[in-house]
């Protein structure tokens, strides 16, 4: 960063003290309780319109903003839905899902915060999340266990929802069928006459929660047939892709499920640079059905994934918040359908 | 979502009450103040090791987690650094920057929370953020104004840092030189002998804070020369790219700065499908220096952007938190250098 010389003079406002609801009460000539009723929109108490207006004007004049934490301490819970910020590079598919979910929860008056836990995992992370007292916690693809769920519930979370291949005791589960993704891709390659099938397993940390069940699904898809599945570790860089492409002929493979469309793009380029014909020498299929697959030549075959609708997930959270004692729900998500294009 | 039948029976723990520090004090046989001293690691008071251990054991047994909000009410501020969750689709470059920043702030014992504000903008959003009483707020590419900064400071934020093309009164500023990106790309095309230069402006909402200054920089780069700059609106989909490619010859253009590498990939494919030679008929340059540009044929020229280092930004936040009355700092970030490959 380049420091720019001659900064402007200090901001005087930084030194001023933080206004409290007592200041607002004093200026408006009402009680603190009245200020609280008005600014927190408590429907329980009737307050005249002129008083209401006076409180709002005083709050505006003083720059007073209610304290969500104080309010949640009084109410016993917040409107905060906490999600751990993903520790893996987020693709366009997940970004879109997250955007929809935020929108849908926002419509139900929840606030979504993504919590950036660094170097802390599983149940230990749950303790850190619990300190913010979220009313609900949404955990995608994590290593949260029953103790972590328990910590969250004991600290007041009314709903814990996991989004991953397996359910966790005590939590609602959106069961992402990653095995189904590997199965669909591999079954497709088998049906196209391929028998020596590689499956890319990214070397990047945090992706194994997706890649391990995909590999497993690939193995199951051809179990008991004359086809083989070979695990292909691959880092997301050109050097590693070139190394793998150079080993393609010695490995005797004729097809690859490349984990997702981005790894498929990387590997397909390396195979082409190695002089291999796609799909002649190597049939390639990705997953996620990103636009980039349609921009490649040959056009990339892929597995289209049906992410859970933000609206459905928001409704599940809201149900669970209203009835925290209800039985954990289990929903299957991530329907996988093959989109056959030119690369396979 | 597919509901799976026969869910397991209700979790009994959901009905149990939330343990308080009073419960911990009772079980450990100490005062509530002692519990608070031990669990909040207050260095001010000396507490014997056996007492300390008894409190920790009681907390663990009861599943008690301290309340960050209560703690921040007592301390007067939190360790929370709030960032609005981006409202635009996040590319790999920004993802990496965010990851580094979280890591660096985590090392300084801050927690990064990304706040998902939906349908709320500028100073109104600032009020919502203020309710969480963050100790610092980092605002990338937003429409925050001086009143929003003031609201945040009055509610206890010790540092507000904006990351965008312009500084905001009262806030520290990382000034992203988006004009410089457009200027570098366009100057490169000019130097390659191009005179009829198109500049892609994405139709997607939320990107204009980047695209407008890039277009402006492009215009300035060739002001007073014999070259022209033509604004090319483009939605991120194949149909719109095909429509633009079909107009390429009538428009009489010979080069394009395609906003970033992803739009460049989309447009380059459409131009190639239209039978145009790259770079013969159309020189193409993107921005961001993503790996995908190296995977394309011809290899994509691009503008490499130097994002601010997470460590530097974290240090700035920490400085500002410790000295909230100091003069706002101004730093220039986003150094732009052209990476010339085959497409231009």
UniProtKB/TrEMBL annotation, chains A, B:
Residues 19-75 form the HTH lacI-type domain. It holds the Pfam family Peripla_BP_3. It comes from the Bacteria. InterPro entries: HTH_LacI (IPR000843), LacI/GalR-like_sensor (IPR046335), Lambda_DNA-bd_dom_sf (IPR010982), Peripla_BP_I (IPR028082). GO terms for molecular function: DNA binding. Keywords: DNA-binding, Transcription, Transcription regulation. PANTHER family: LACI-RELATED TRANSCRIPTIONAL REPRESSOR, LACTOSE OPERON REPRESSOR. This is LacI family DNA-binding transcriptional regulator. It comes from Streptomyces hyderabadensis.
């Amino acid at each position: 960063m380049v420091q720019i010389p001659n900064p402007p003079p200090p901001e005087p406002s930084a030194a001023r003290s933080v206004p409290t609801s007592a200041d607002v009460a004093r200026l408006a000539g009402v009680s603190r309780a009245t200020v609280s009723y008005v600014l927190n929109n408590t429907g329980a108490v009737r307050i005249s319109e002129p008083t209401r207006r006076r409180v709002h004007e005083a709050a505006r004049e003083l720059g007073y903003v209610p304290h969500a934490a104080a309010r949640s301490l009084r109410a016993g819970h917040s409107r905060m839905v906490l999600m751990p910020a993903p520790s893996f590079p987020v693709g366009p598919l997940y970004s879109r899902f997250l955007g929809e979910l935020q929108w849908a929860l926002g419509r139900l008056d929840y606030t979504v915060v993504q919590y950036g836990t660094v170097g802390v995992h599983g149940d230990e992370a749950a303790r850190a999340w619990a300190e913010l007292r979220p009313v609900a916690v949404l955990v995608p693809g994590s290593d949260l266990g029953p103790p972590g769920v328990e910590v969250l519930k004991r600290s007041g979370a009314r709903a814990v929802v996991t989004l991953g291949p397996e359910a966790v005791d005590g939590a609602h589960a959106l069961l992402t069928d990653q095995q189904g993704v590997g199965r669909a891709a591999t079954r497709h390659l088998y049906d196209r006459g391929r028998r020596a099938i590689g499956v890319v397993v990214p070397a990047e940390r945090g992706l194994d929660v997706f890649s391990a069940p995909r590999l497993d699904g690939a193995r199951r898809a051809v179990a008991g047939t004359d086809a083989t599945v070979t695990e292909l570790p691959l880092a997301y860089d050109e050097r590693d892709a070139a190394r793998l492409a150079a080993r393609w002929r010695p490995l005797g493979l004729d097809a690859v499920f490349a984990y997702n469309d981005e790894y498929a793009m990387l590997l397909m380029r390396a195979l082409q640079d190695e002089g291999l014909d796609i799909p002649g020498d190597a049939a390639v299929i990705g997953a996620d059905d990103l636009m980039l697959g349609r921009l490649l030549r040959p056009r990339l075959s892929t597995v289209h994934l049906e992410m859970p609708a933000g609206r459905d997930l928001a409704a599940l959270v809201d149900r669970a918040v209203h009835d925290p004692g209800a039985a954990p729900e289990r929903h299957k998500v991530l329907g996988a359908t093959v989109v056959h294009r030119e690369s396979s």
